[in-house]
Design goal:
12% of the residues lie in helices and 44% in strands. It has 229 residues and is mostly beta strands.
Length: 229
């Protein structure tokens, strides 16, 4: 009985020693070295009464935009990517220096009816649209583009993750749950990069409006993309 008690004490001492060694090693790493830093918000705009700093309008039409209830609402006017009206742009994050996520939640205030009617995030290089992550009506059905992922809800959060030369396009139906990955691939760097929220391909004979909420740019630390399905 005594022999067993000694063995138990010895085992306990070994466990304590191992724990202390582990703590010492973590301490030696210094602050922020033991675990990855939390994502940091670089810019956010809740559209509370006015636009945040740094935005510029492309082909502005003041009569077809408004701020209401902590959101920016833009009428979906006729046009294509090269002629879009009321596109709201700002300088892109410096993706050569890290990984960034651009998020915005969009809601159709009127059901889309036009072929290719769409709203979301567009990436610009030197004043030209080169990539988009949007909710789009194609042949009577809604999709997240790129990836052509079927979408049945009215509200969706879009997330564009960019790094030095790549993108990951993600979305969350109803802005809830885990991010789903629609597509990923190469996004070559270019001069004067900007990110935009916009909508176009709307009808001529009806007023369709898009509600944009909770725009933010976040720097992501670590090597992994946020959880997906």
């Amino acid at each position: 009985m005594t022999h067993r008690l000694r063995l138990s004490r010895c085992t306990a001492q070994q466990v304590v020693a191992a724990v202390m060694i582990g703590v010492s090693c973590l301490t030696a790493l210094g602050p922020g070295r033991a675990s990855a830093a939390e994502p940091a918000v670089v810019f956010s705009d809740g559209f509370a009464g006015e636009l945040g700093e740094g935005w510029t309008w492309l082909r502005e039409n003041p009569a077809a935009r408004r701020i209401a209830e902590n959101a920016l609402e833009i009428r979906v006017e006729p046009g294509v990517a090269q002629t879009v009206k009321n596109a709201l742009l700002r300088p892109s994050p410096e993706r050569a220096k890290g990984r960034f996520a651009i998020d915005v939640t969009i809601t159709n205030l009127s059901p889309p009816t036009q072929q290719f009617e769409q709203a979301g995030i567009t990436w610009y290089t030197d004043g030209k649209p080169v990539f988009k992550l949007v909710k789009e009506l194609i042949d009577g059905k809604l999709y997240v583009i790129p990836g052509r992922k079927p979408l049945e809800c009215n509200t969706v959060e879009l997330r564009l993750i960019v790094s030095a030369d790549r993108f990951t396009a993600q979305y969350r139906p109803e802005a809830k749950g885990e991010y789903l990955t629609a597509a990923e691939g190469k996004l070559a760097p270019g001069p004067n990069e900007q990110v935009s929220i916009q909508c176009y391909q709307g009808p001529l004979d009806a007023e369709h409006w898009i509600r944009f909420e909770n725009f933010r740019i976040t720097r992501l630390d670590g090597d992994s993309v946020p959880a997906t399905k």
